[in-house]
Amino acid sequence: MTGPTKSLVIIVLAVVVMVSLNIAMWRRMRDGLAAAKAEQAANPELFDQDGTRIS
Q: S-S: 48 plus which of 8, 19, 38, 52, CB 3.0-4.6 Å?
């Protein structure tokens, strides 16, 4: 591979890795939000009116 081709391949691979990590992060965040909502629905006595957890 020549220099410019090698550079282009490295850049494309870096972009693919970043997009994959971003998708994984958003999925994890969405799953965490769903779990928090489920906990609030299951134990409403642990939360205030605005959804803040009571310590």
A: 52
End-to-end CA distance of the chain: 60
Is residue 54 within 8 A of residue 46, CB to CB? The reply is yes
**Report field, pTM of the whole predicted structure over 0.70:** no
Tokens of 50: 């605005």
pLDDT in tens, 3-23: 899 999 999 999 999 999 999
Distance CA 42, CA 37 (A): 9
Please give the tally of structural domains in the chain: 1
Q: Cα–Cα distance between 28 and 7 in angstroms, integer?
A: 32
